[in-house]
Design brief:
Mean pLDDT of chain B: 86
Distance between the termini of chain B: 18 Å
Number of strands of chain B: 22
Oligomer: heterodimer
CATH architecture of the largest domain in chain B: 3-Layer(aba) Sandwich
Largest sheet of chain B: 6 strands, mixed
Low-confidence stretches of chain B: 505-513
Structural class of chain A: mainly alpha
Helix content of chain A: over 70%
CATH class of the largest domain in chain A: Mainly Alpha
Structural class of chain B: alpha/beta
CATH topology of the largest domain in chain A: ABC transporter involved in vitamin B12 uptake, BtuC
Number of helices of chain A: 14
GO molecular function, one term (chain A): transmembrane transporter activity
Number of helices of chain B: 18
Strand content of chain B: 25-35%
Shape of chain B: elongated
Order of helices and strands of chain A: HHHHHHHHHHHHHH
Organism (chain A): Aminobacter anthyllidis
Shape of chain A: globular
CATH superfamily of the largest domain in chain B: P-loop containing nucleotide triphosphate hydrolases
InterPro entries (chain A): ABC_transp_permease
Strand order of the largest sheet of chain B: 6-7-8-3-9-10
Low-confidence stretches of chain A: 1-11
Largest interface: A-B, 21 and 34 residues
Protein name (chain A): ABC transporter permease
Membrane topology (chain A): Multi-pass membrane protein
Radius of gyration of chain B: 25 Å
Number of strands of chain A: 0
Chain lengths: ~375, ~525
């Protein structure tokens, strides 16, 4: 069938137009499926809400557009999008290398711990030095935390799915211990760390809004990771290892090394997200520093089809849904669990549509 | 042949997606015989047997057992009709005892537990009768592979069978265990049972069976009584393909020594020795062939040479440099090219483009990479050049290689490996699964490489491939090089004998009469 189609095209279009047509149609297929997946999920969600006695379409509309009221609320969405884009883009790299890092949540927590440590224990540095130092500490801690799982995988063939999940618990409980014990702010009643010194704070974009430059860093890094994966030699090796480790070995690639690099990159971005939460948003370390960004980041990467560039958009979408659900809680009686159900549906339909796309690719 | 055979398979077909596993197979098994099923890997032996024992259901055709058409939906239904199979991969629960494994899925738990003493007694009785040495309370994971196999055989005997099917039973056994198993097959037949066993080892087939059926490409191509043929005849039936291929070529002019392998030993996946003391030399400007029935250590030999399998003992020297155990990256960089046996596993990445597959080894070297970034222009130019030179049918260098035909995929692998300008080329199965046109093309290309002074080692199970381009042929059997022959069709008989593991002076007596 393909042969026939090509034959027809060859006669009608010149070579360059053909190539452009293919690229565009492939891009269209790639873009259409996640959008369709989201729409289907929202339709299901609306039906579910309607069955529960709510005005389904109205609620869904609020969920998506309700949070776009003014600049301030858009800034809040972008604030939530920052960790989601960072974690999602990082996980794209790991997933492309067939490393199933489920531990971004834990990597975020250790990133936050490291950032807090650097942000509270040093004083007298300029903001130009201290703020980047905090980010670097978070990224390195996240990479190291992910590196533990990576090492266990390459050395002992321990499943990274299991080890990263277990490391999540350790990181979260370690945070609780630190903010109730060694790092606790002595003057506070609640479990929290001391406040980071001013110079360690992530600079804000506009002084009276919480949005900080982390969103810019996230977008730049997502673009950089896209270029890394698609255009660099190392990124190529990571992809080959992920697609066919036997061929990678045959070609002389060091499979273990590439696995370590991929998991550490994803850990670094999750750690950086943790650093931004502390240095950019709360300025202190708390027990529940993340409302599950590390897990939602998996969905972000999934919706983006493991493309870091697309993770910018899918991270933005999940942040919008998250903000929308907060608006809903304030303005209507819709329980938050229903909002979570809708988010779950988005993920499920993305998976279903991904299967559909794979089938479609053979026909196209 | 008797009017009413014990088991008759009539024109069975089975497809798995695009792959035809059984292409109208017919076969008759007589009561009380040992019937061997012989054939290359992928000839369709295991699938056929799985259909008889209810593991797989045929798409078309009929199985007539004791005069009645039968259709089993599960192995349990087959067992009820007294047909049992021992699979190549054992189906035992490792942390249970022998007795516990036997009663799995047999009726209600309460009843079974009450009967446990009876189960133990029955196992002991069967074990004694056939000298199987199986204890009912032994835990599976403590047993050796050979013991586990006896547990499996006893399991089907325990359930009561008349027809026993064994799928490559000797593949995992030591020679001593093999002898024991072959003797057991004789005992079972004396007790009135019928045995069908799958193998691709000619010598053991000759020793025990009454009749032999040879399968090729999903069909039974010959059924012979054991007295009617010999190992060389069987070898020829197995590899088949009597089409002669004549490629014009000049006599070889071997130059200096390029690759020298000295007493190489390595183990296969099962941990058993697969390559046992192989020594060989390949000179510049010659093609050395390695013939042999598949599964005799050729796969492991090529993986060990290219650094993908650890070498136990011995040395591999390329251009005077010891490359033993250096790992694929450094071996690749030493002027070593490898056209692998399993194209989809090692040779290509199916979902990447032709261009990306072309730079699999050189993705971080100039001109394909500069300062850590891929040079897409250079990759594109290089790939387009190869597509043109090797006449690879494709849209352009950005097409997914998985969308190409097998022949065109292989051409790209050959093109890539030759483009790396190696001194030595290791080829395992040059023309597997590709059409005749592509086959001739890659063979001619190999001859050109030879004439330009490359050293080539061609491992193949296709004799025609070897005859067509090799300058001399080594024969491999049971992990050893048994002899060397010139590539002359008149020496085919000798070649067949060597492939069967028989040096001309050693003839083993058959066990079954």
């Amino acid at each position: 069938m393909e042969q026939v189609n090509q034959g027809v095209r060859e006669n009608v279009y010149p070579q360059a137009a053909q190539a452009l047509y293919r690229t565009l149609s492939q891009a269209a297929i790639s873009a259409v499926t996640p959008i369709a997946a989201v729409l289907v999920a929202l339709a299901f969600g609306a039906t579910l809400l309607w069955l529960n006695g709510f005005d389904g379409t109205d609620v869904v509309t609020v969920m998506i557009f309700g949070s776009f009221q003014d600049t301030r609320s858009v800034a809040e969405i972008l604030l939530k999008a920052t960790p989601l884009i960072l974690i999602g883009a990082g996980l794209c790299v790991a997933f492309r290398c067939s490393i199933w890092n489920i531990g971004a949540e834990g990597q975020l927590y250790v990133g936050a711990i490291a950032a807090t440590f650097v942000g509270t224990s040093i004083d007298g540095l300029s903001v130009w030095v201290h703020a980047p130092l905090v980010m670097l500490a978070g990224a390195l801690a996240g990479a190291a935390w992910a590196g533990i799982a990576g090492y266990l995988k390459v050395r002992f063939q321990a499943s990274e799915i299991v080890t990263t999940i277990m490391l999540n618990y350790i990181a979260i409980i370690l945070t609780s211990y630190l903010v109730t014990g060694p790092m606790k702010d002595a003057s506070a009643a609640y479990p929290q760390s001391a406040r980071l010194v001013r110079e360690a704070w992530t600079p804000r974009i506009v002084s009276d809004m919480r949005l900080h430059i982390g969103i810019l860093v996230a977008v730049v890094l997502a673009v950089a990771l896209y270029i890394f994966l698609q255009r660099s030699s190392r990124g190529f090796a990571l992809r080959v290892v992920g697609l066919n480790p036997h061929a990678a070995r045959y070609a002389g690639m060091d499979v273990r090394r590439n696995v370590m690099i991929a998991i550490c990159i994803s850990g670094a971005l999750a750690g950086l997200a943790g650093a931004f939460e502390v240095a950019g948003v709360t300025h202190r370390l708390y027990q529940n520093i993340s409302p599950g960004y590390g897990f939602e980041g998996i969905a972000v990467a999934l919706l983006a089809n493991n493309n870091p560039l697309a993770a910018i958009i899918s991270g933005g979408l999940f942040a919008t849904l998250r903000s929308g659900s907060e608006v809903l809680q304030i303005t209507s009686q819709v329980p938050q669990v229903l909002v979570l159900v809708i988010q779950g549906m988005v993920i499920l339909s993305v998976v279903a549509f991904a299967k559909f796309r794979d089938k479609f690719r053979f026909v196209a | 042949m008797s009017a009413k055979p014990f088991l008759r398979i009539d024109n069975i077909r089975k497809r798995f997606g695009p792959i035809v596993a059984s292409d109208g197979v017919s076969l008759e098994i007589e009561e009380g015989e040992i019937h061997a099923l012989l054939g290359e890997n992928g000839a369709g032996k295991s699938v056929l047997m799985s259909m008889i024992c209810g593991m797989v259901r045929p798409d078309e055709g009929e199985i007539i057992y004791r005069g009645q058409s039968v259709r089993f939906n599960s192995p349990r239904e087959a067992i009820r009709q007294r047909i049992g199979m021992v699979h190549q991969h054992f189906m035992l629960v490792p942390n249970l005892t022998v007795a516990e494994n036997y009663i799995l899925g047999q009726g209600s738990a309460l009843k079974v537990i009450n009967d446990m003493d009876k189960v133990d007694a029955k196992i002991r009785e069967l074990s004694d009768r056939y000298a199987l040495d199986v204890r009912p309370d032994a835990i599976i994971e403590d047993l050796s592979v050979g013991e586990q196999q006896r547990v499996e055989i006893l399991k089907v005997l325990f359930h009561g069978i008349d027809l026993l099917i064994l799928d490559e039973p000797t593949a995992v056994l030591t020679p001593q265990e093999t002898d024991r198993l072959l003797a057991l097959m004789g005992d079972l037949v004396k007790d009135g049972k019928t045995v069908v066993f799958i193998s691709h080892k000619l010598d053991e087939v000759m020793r025990v069976s009454n009749r032999i059926s040879v399968m090729r490409d999903g069909r039974v191509v010959h059924t012979v009584n054991v007295g009617e043929t010999d190992a060389r005849g069987l070898a020829r039936m197995m590899v088949g393909r009597d089409v002669g291929m004549e490629l014009p070529r000049s006599p070889s002019a071997p130059g200096p020594l390029v690759l020298s392998v000295d007493n190489l030993t390595c183990r296969g996946e099962t941990g058993l020795p697969a390559v046992r003391g192989v020594s060989l030399d390949v000179r510049a400007g010659e093609i050395v062939g390695i013939a042999g029935v598949s599964g005799n250590g050729q796969t492991e030999l090529s993986l060990a040479l290219s650094g993908l399998l650890p070498v136990d003992t011995g040395r591999v020297v390329l251009n005077g440099k010891d490359i033993t155990g250096l790992g694929p990256a450094r071996i690749n960089a030493s002027g070593f090219s490898h056209i692998p046996e399993d194209r989809h596993k090692h040779g290509i990445v199916m979902s990447l483009s032709l261009g990306e597959n072309t730079i699999l080894q050189r993705y971080d070297q100039p001109p394909f990479a500069a300062r850590g970034m891929l040079n897409r222009r250079a990759i594109g130019e290089h790939t387009r050049d190869l597509i043109k030179r090797f006449r690879i049918k494709s849209r352009d260098e950005n097409q997914r290689i998985g969308d190409l035909s097998g022949g065109n995929q292989q051409k790209l692998v050959v093109a890539r490996e030759l483009a790396r300008n190696p001194d030595f080329i290791l080829v395992n199965q040059l023309a597997r699964g590709i059409d005749i046109g592509a086959m001739e093309f890659v063979m001619e290309e190999m001859l050109k490489q030879r004439d330009s002074g490359k050293a080539i080692l061609l491992i193949s199970t296709e004799l025609e491939e070897l005859f067509a381009i090799c300058d001399r042929i080594l024969v491999m059997c049971h992990g050893e090089i048994l002899g060397e022959l010139p590539p002359e069709r008149t020496r085919l008989d000798e070649l067949g004998l060597l492939m069967a593991g028989k040096r001309a002076d050693v003839v083993q007596p058959p066990l079954a009469s």
